Amino acid sequence: MTDTAGAGGDGVGELVHRVARSTVALNYRRWNWGEGVAQYALLRTGILLNEPAYTGEVSAFMRQNAALVPRTIDEIMPALAAVLLHQETGDKLPLELALRVAAMLETHPRSHHGAYTATRVRTVWVDYLFESAPYLWQLGAVTGDPRYAEWAIDQTLAYLMACWNPRERLFHHVYYDATFSPNPSLWARANGWTALGLVEMLALIPRERGLTPMLSRVLGYLAERLAALQDDSGHWHIVLDDPETYLETSTSAMISLALRRAVRDGWVDQRYRASADRAWDAVVREIDANGQVLGVSAETPPGDAEYYQAIERGVHPWGQGFALLAALDRLEFPHP
What we know:
By secondary structure, the protein is mainly α. The protein has a single domain, classed as Glycosyltransferase (Alpha/alpha barrel), CATH 1.50.10.10. Helix content is about 55%, strand content about 5%. The protein is globular.
Protein backbone atom coordinates (compact mmCIF):
# COMPACT_ATOMS: atom_id res chain seq x y z
CA MET A 1 0.00 0.00 0.00
CA THR A 2 1.41 3.36 -1.00
CA ASP A 3 1.13 6.51 1.04
CA THR A 4 -0.78 8.23 -1.77
CA ALA A 5 -4.00 6.60 -0.58
CA GLY A 6 -3.62 8.11 2.88
CA ALA A 7 -5.15 11.19 4.43
CA GLY A 8 -3.52 13.70 2.13
CA GLY A 9 -2.77 11.51 -0.88
CA ASP A 10 -4.19 11.36 -4.39
CA GLY A 11 -4.38 7.57 -4.80
CA VAL A 12 -7.85 7.17 -3.32
CA GLY A 13 -9.47 6.49 -6.70
CA GLU A 14 -7.29 3.45 -7.28
CA LEU A 15 -8.02 2.24 -3.76
CA VAL A 16 -11.77 2.63 -4.29
CA HIS A 17 -11.65 0.45 -7.40
CA ARG A 18 -9.47 -2.15 -5.70
CA VAL A 19 -11.78 -2.51 -2.71
CA ALA A 20 -14.90 -2.42 -4.90
CA ARG A 21 -13.61 -5.12 -7.26
CA SER A 22 -12.70 -7.28 -4.28
CA THR A 23 -16.14 -6.76 -2.75
CA VAL A 24 -17.84 -7.88 -5.98
CA ALA A 25 -15.56 -10.92 -6.17
CA LEU A 26 -16.43 -11.92 -2.60
CA ASN A 27 -20.02 -12.41 -3.82
CA TYR A 28 -22.00 -11.08 -0.86
CA ARG A 29 -25.50 -12.05 -2.00
CA ARG A 30 -27.36 -12.96 1.22
CA TRP A 31 -30.07 -10.45 2.22
CA ASN A 32 -28.70 -9.59 5.64
CA TRP A 33 -27.25 -6.62 7.48
CA GLY A 34 -23.56 -7.18 6.67
CA GLU A 35 -24.19 -7.87 3.01
CA GLY A 36 -26.43 -4.81 3.00
CA VAL A 37 -23.49 -2.61 4.02
CA ALA A 38 -21.39 -4.02 1.18
CA GLN A 39 -24.16 -3.64 -1.41
CA TYR A 40 -24.96 -0.08 -0.33
CA ALA A 41 -21.28 0.86 -0.62
CA LEU A 42 -21.01 -0.74 -4.07
CA LEU A 43 -24.07 1.14 -5.25
CA ARG A 44 -22.72 4.44 -3.97
CA THR A 45 -19.46 3.64 -5.78
CA GLY A 46 -21.22 2.83 -9.03
CA ILE A 47 -23.20 6.06 -8.90
CA LEU A 48 -20.27 8.31 -8.03
CA LEU A 49 -17.93 6.77 -10.60
CA ASN A 50 -20.63 6.07 -13.22
CA GLU A 51 -19.44 2.48 -13.22
CA PRO A 52 -22.11 0.01 -14.46
CA ALA A 53 -20.23 -3.03 -13.14
CA TYR A 54 -20.78 -1.98 -9.53
CA THR A 55 -24.36 -0.83 -10.03
CA GLY A 56 -25.08 -4.03 -11.93
CA GLU A 57 -23.81 -6.10 -9.02
CA VAL A 58 -26.41 -4.47 -6.77
CA SER A 59 -29.16 -4.99 -9.37
CA ALA A 60 -28.20 -8.67 -9.53
CA PHE A 61 -28.31 -8.84 -5.73
CA MET A 62 -31.88 -7.49 -5.77
CA ARG A 63 -32.99 -9.98 -8.39
CA GLN A 64 -31.42 -12.87 -6.56
CA ASN A 65 -33.52 -11.88 -3.53
CA ALA A 66 -36.72 -11.17 -5.46
CA ALA A 67 -38.69 -13.74 -3.41
CA LEU A 68 -37.68 -12.19 -0.08
CA VAL A 69 -40.14 -12.43 2.82
CA PRO A 70 -38.35 -10.49 5.59
CA ARG A 71 -38.86 -11.67 9.15
CA THR A 72 -36.13 -10.10 11.30
CA ILE A 73 -34.48 -6.72 11.68
CA ASP A 74 -31.22 -8.30 10.48
CA GLU A 75 -32.86 -7.83 7.07
CA ILE A 76 -33.30 -4.04 7.22
CA MET A 77 -29.91 -2.84 5.98
CA PRO A 78 -30.14 -4.01 2.34
CA ALA A 79 -33.33 -1.97 2.01
CA LEU A 80 -31.26 1.24 2.12
CA ALA A 81 -29.48 0.12 -1.06
CA ALA A 82 -32.84 -0.91 -2.52
CA VAL A 83 -34.35 2.55 -2.08
CA LEU A 84 -31.27 4.23 -3.55
CA LEU A 85 -31.23 1.86 -6.54
CA HIS A 86 -34.88 2.63 -7.23
CA GLN A 87 -34.16 6.36 -7.02
CA GLU A 88 -31.30 6.03 -9.49
CA THR A 89 -32.82 3.62 -12.02
CA GLY A 90 -36.58 3.64 -11.57
CA ASP A 91 -36.47 -0.14 -11.16
CA LYS A 92 -39.61 -1.20 -9.30
CA LEU A 93 -38.27 -4.42 -7.78
CA PRO A 94 -35.92 -2.74 -5.29
CA LEU A 95 -38.74 -0.48 -4.11
CA GLU A 96 -40.98 -3.51 -3.66
CA LEU A 97 -38.29 -5.18 -1.55
CA ALA A 98 -37.89 -2.04 0.56
CA LEU A 99 -41.65 -1.89 1.09
CA ARG A 100 -41.69 -5.53 2.20
CA VAL A 101 -39.14 -4.67 4.88
CA ALA A 102 -41.33 -1.75 6.00
CA ALA A 103 -44.37 -4.04 6.15
CA MET A 104 -42.41 -6.38 8.42
CA LEU A 105 -41.56 -3.46 10.71
CA GLU A 106 -45.25 -2.52 11.03
CA THR A 107 -45.73 -5.32 13.55
CA HIS A 108 -42.17 -5.93 14.71
CA PRO A 109 -41.74 -5.96 18.53
CA ARG A 110 -40.45 -2.80 20.18
CA SER A 111 -38.83 -1.94 23.47
CA HIS A 112 -40.24 0.32 26.17
CA HIS A 113 -38.37 3.13 24.42
CA GLY A 114 -40.00 2.19 21.12
CA ALA A 115 -36.86 0.81 19.46
CA TYR A 116 -37.11 -2.27 17.27
CA THR A 117 -35.88 -5.22 19.29
CA ALA A 118 -33.47 -7.82 17.97
CA THR A 119 -34.27 -10.99 19.91
CA ARG A 120 -37.10 -12.71 21.75
CA VAL A 121 -35.82 -11.31 25.05
CA ARG A 122 -36.26 -7.77 23.72
CA THR A 123 -32.67 -6.65 23.25
CA VAL A 124 -32.11 -3.23 21.70
CA TRP A 125 -29.00 -3.14 19.48
CA VAL A 126 -27.80 0.40 18.80
CA ASP A 127 -26.47 -0.70 15.38
CA TYR A 128 -30.00 -0.36 14.07
CA LEU A 129 -30.06 3.40 14.47
CA PHE A 130 -27.99 3.57 11.27
CA GLU A 131 -29.57 0.50 9.72
CA SER A 132 -33.19 1.59 10.12
CA ALA A 133 -33.55 5.36 10.44
CA PRO A 134 -31.89 6.54 7.17
CA TYR A 135 -33.66 3.81 5.19
CA LEU A 136 -37.06 4.75 6.60
CA TRP A 137 -36.48 8.44 5.93
CA GLN A 138 -35.45 7.77 2.33
CA LEU A 139 -38.40 5.44 1.82
CA GLY A 140 -40.68 8.24 2.93
CA ALA A 141 -39.06 10.60 0.44
CA VAL A 142 -39.52 8.13 -2.42
CA THR A 143 -43.10 7.11 -1.63
CA GLY A 144 -44.39 10.41 -0.27
CA ASP A 145 -45.78 8.57 2.75
CA PRO A 146 -45.06 10.71 5.86
CA ARG A 147 -45.34 7.70 8.19
CA TYR A 148 -41.87 6.55 7.26
CA ALA A 149 -40.23 9.86 8.17
CA GLU A 150 -42.00 9.75 11.53
CA TRP A 151 -40.75 6.20 12.07
CA ALA A 152 -37.22 7.33 11.22
CA ILE A 153 -37.33 10.09 13.83
CA ASP A 154 -38.96 7.77 16.36
CA GLN A 155 -36.21 5.16 15.92
CA THR A 156 -33.42 7.75 16.10
CA LEU A 157 -34.65 8.96 19.47
CA ALA A 158 -35.52 5.50 20.77
CA TYR A 159 -32.04 4.06 20.19
CA LEU A 160 -30.41 7.13 21.68
CA MET A 161 -32.54 6.92 24.81
CA ALA A 162 -31.89 3.21 25.22
CA CYS A 163 -28.13 3.06 24.65
CA TRP A 164 -26.57 6.48 25.33
CA ASN A 165 -24.41 6.66 28.45
CA PRO A 166 -24.10 10.36 29.32
CA ARG A 167 -21.50 9.75 32.01
CA GLU A 168 -19.17 7.92 29.64
CA ARG A 169 -20.27 9.98 26.61
CA LEU A 170 -20.38 6.73 24.67
CA PHE A 171 -23.00 4.23 23.52
CA HIS A 172 -23.63 0.76 24.86
CA HIS A 173 -23.89 -2.02 22.32
CA VAL A 174 -27.14 -3.44 23.67
CA TYR A 175 -29.91 -2.47 26.08
CA TYR A 176 -31.85 -5.27 27.78
CA ASP A 177 -35.45 -4.16 27.84
CA ALA A 178 -36.54 -6.82 30.33
CA THR A 179 -34.07 -5.67 33.01
CA PHE A 180 -33.87 -1.98 32.06
CA SER A 181 -30.08 -2.15 31.81
CA PRO A 182 -27.34 -2.12 29.14
CA ASN A 183 -24.52 -4.59 28.62
CA PRO A 184 -21.55 -3.24 30.57
CA SER A 185 -18.76 -3.11 27.98
CA LEU A 186 -18.50 -0.21 25.55
CA TRP A 187 -18.08 -1.96 22.21
CA ALA A 188 -16.24 0.07 19.61
CA ARG A 189 -18.26 -0.75 16.51
CA ALA A 190 -21.49 0.17 18.28
CA ASN A 191 -20.14 3.69 18.59
CA GLY A 192 -19.14 3.67 14.94
CA TRP A 193 -22.69 2.70 13.96
CA THR A 194 -24.11 5.45 16.13
CA ALA A 195 -21.71 8.15 14.97
CA LEU A 196 -22.64 7.41 11.37
CA GLY A 197 -26.33 7.28 12.22
CA LEU A 198 -26.21 10.66 13.93
CA VAL A 199 -24.34 12.29 11.04
CA GLU A 200 -26.76 10.81 8.51
CA MET A 201 -29.90 11.82 10.38
CA LEU A 202 -28.59 15.33 11.01
CA ALA A 203 -28.24 15.63 7.24
CA LEU A 204 -31.72 14.28 6.57
CA ILE A 205 -34.00 15.72 9.29
CA PRO A 206 -34.95 19.35 8.57
CA ARG A 207 -33.92 21.83 11.25
CA GLU A 208 -37.51 22.92 11.73
CA ARG A 209 -38.24 19.55 13.31
CA GLY A 210 -36.32 20.84 16.33
CA LEU A 211 -34.03 17.84 16.78
CA THR A 212 -30.81 19.36 15.46
CA PRO A 213 -29.60 20.85 18.79
CA MET A 214 -30.00 17.59 20.68
CA LEU A 215 -28.55 15.30 18.00
CA SER A 216 -25.58 17.57 17.32
CA ARG A 217 -24.89 17.93 21.05
CA VAL A 218 -24.74 14.15 21.51
CA LEU A 219 -22.54 13.85 18.42
CA GLY A 220 -20.20 16.49 19.83
CA TYR A 221 -19.85 14.66 23.14
CA LEU A 222 -19.28 11.38 21.30
CA ALA A 223 -16.63 12.88 19.00
CA GLU A 224 -14.73 14.32 21.95
CA ARG A 225 -14.68 11.01 23.78
CA LEU A 226 -13.75 8.97 20.71
CA ALA A 227 -10.86 11.28 19.90
CA ALA A 228 -9.58 10.94 23.46
CA LEU A 229 -9.72 7.13 23.28
CA GLN A 230 -8.05 6.78 19.87
CA ASP A 231 -4.94 4.60 19.94
CA ASP A 232 -1.61 5.97 18.69
CA SER A 233 -1.99 3.62 15.69
CA GLY A 234 -5.10 5.51 14.58
CA HIS A 235 -7.39 2.58 15.41
CA TRP A 236 -9.66 2.04 18.41
CA HIS A 237 -9.69 -0.92 20.78
CA ILE A 238 -12.64 -3.27 20.32
CA VAL A 239 -13.70 -2.32 23.87
CA LEU A 240 -13.09 1.39 23.71
CA ASP A 241 -11.85 1.98 27.24
CA ASP A 242 -9.91 -1.28 27.58
CA PRO A 243 -6.42 -1.01 26.04
CA GLU A 244 -5.86 -4.73 26.57
CA THR A 245 -8.38 -5.54 23.81
CA TYR A 246 -7.42 -5.67 20.16
CA LEU A 247 -7.58 -2.90 17.55
CA GLU A 248 -10.35 -3.24 14.96
CA THR A 249 -10.47 -1.98 11.36
CA SER A 250 -14.18 -1.51 10.58
CA THR A 251 -14.54 0.70 13.65
CA SER A 252 -11.79 2.95 12.33
CA ALA A 253 -13.42 3.19 8.90
CA MET A 254 -16.79 4.07 10.41
CA ILE A 255 -15.50 6.65 12.86
CA SER A 256 -13.17 8.20 10.29
CA LEU A 257 -16.08 8.69 7.91
CA ALA A 258 -18.41 9.97 10.64
CA LEU A 259 -15.91 12.49 12.03
CA ARG A 260 -14.92 13.73 8.58
CA ARG A 261 -18.54 14.31 7.61
CA ALA A 262 -19.33 15.88 10.97
CA VAL A 263 -16.47 18.36 10.55
CA ARG A 264 -17.43 19.16 6.97
CA ASP A 265 -21.11 19.66 7.84
CA GLY A 266 -20.23 21.87 10.81
CA TRP A 267 -21.52 19.63 13.59
CA VAL A 268 -18.19 19.25 15.39
CA ASP A 269 -15.00 21.27 15.76
CA GLN A 270 -12.35 21.29 13.04
CA ARG A 271 -9.85 19.69 15.41
CA TYR A 272 -11.49 16.29 14.89
CA ARG A 273 -10.33 16.20 11.29
CA ALA A 274 -6.90 15.08 12.48
CA SER A 275 -8.47 12.14 14.30
CA ALA A 276 -10.43 11.21 11.18
CA ASP A 277 -7.26 11.34 9.07
CA ARG A 278 -5.28 9.18 11.50
CA ALA A 279 -8.07 6.62 11.49
CA TRP A 280 -8.21 6.58 7.70
CA ASP A 281 -4.45 6.06 7.44
CA ALA A 282 -4.82 3.13 9.83
CA VAL A 283 -7.55 1.62 7.63
CA VAL A 284 -5.42 2.00 4.50
CA ARG A 285 -2.65 0.00 6.14
CA GLU A 286 -5.11 -2.88 6.60
CA ILE A 287 -6.13 -3.11 2.92
CA ASP A 288 -4.15 -5.73 1.05
CA ALA A 289 -3.03 -5.79 -2.58
CA ASN A 290 -6.25 -7.58 -3.59
CA GLY A 291 -8.51 -4.97 -1.97
CA GLN A 292 -9.52 -7.06 1.00
CA VAL A 293 -9.97 -5.17 4.27
CA LEU A 294 -8.22 -7.08 7.05
CA GLY A 295 -8.57 -7.03 10.82
CA VAL A 296 -12.38 -6.81 10.87
CA SER A 297 -14.14 -8.48 13.77
CA ALA A 298 -16.75 -11.11 12.94
CA GLU A 299 -20.45 -10.79 13.72
CA THR A 300 -20.56 -9.81 17.38
CA PRO A 301 -23.34 -10.51 19.88
CA PRO A 302 -23.02 -8.55 23.14
CA GLY A 303 -20.78 -9.63 25.96
CA ASP A 304 -18.04 -8.52 28.33
CA ALA A 305 -14.51 -7.43 27.44
CA GLU A 306 -13.19 -11.00 27.49
CA TYR A 307 -15.97 -12.08 25.13
CA TYR A 308 -15.32 -9.25 22.65
CA GLN A 309 -11.60 -9.99 22.76
CA ALA A 310 -12.28 -13.59 21.72
CA ILE A 311 -14.18 -12.62 18.55
CA GLU A 312 -12.09 -13.60 15.53
CA ARG A 313 -10.95 -11.07 12.95
CA GLY A 314 -10.88 -11.51 9.20
CA VAL A 315 -12.49 -10.20 6.00
CA HIS A 316 -16.20 -9.42 6.27
CA PRO A 317 -18.78 -7.55 4.15
CA TRP A 318 -19.20 -4.73 6.68
CA GLY A 319 -15.45 -4.13 6.67
CA GLN A 320 -15.41 -3.96 2.87
CA GLY A 321 -18.45 -1.69 2.83
CA PHE A 322 -17.41 0.82 5.46
CA ALA A 323 -13.85 1.09 4.12
CA LEU A 324 -15.32 1.71 0.68
CA LEU A 325 -17.71 4.38 1.97
CA ALA A 326 -14.88 6.12 3.83
CA ALA A 327 -12.74 6.06 0.68
CA LEU A 328 -15.59 7.40 -1.45
CA ASP A 329 -16.01 10.35 0.89
CA ARG A 330 -12.36 11.26 0.41
CA LEU A 331 -12.64 10.83 -3.34
CA GLU A 332 -15.76 13.00 -3.59
CA PHE A 333 -14.53 15.63 -1.10
CA PRO A 334 -10.73 15.64 -1.29
CA HIS A 335 -10.45 19.00 0.50
CA PRO A 336 -13.12 19.12 3.25
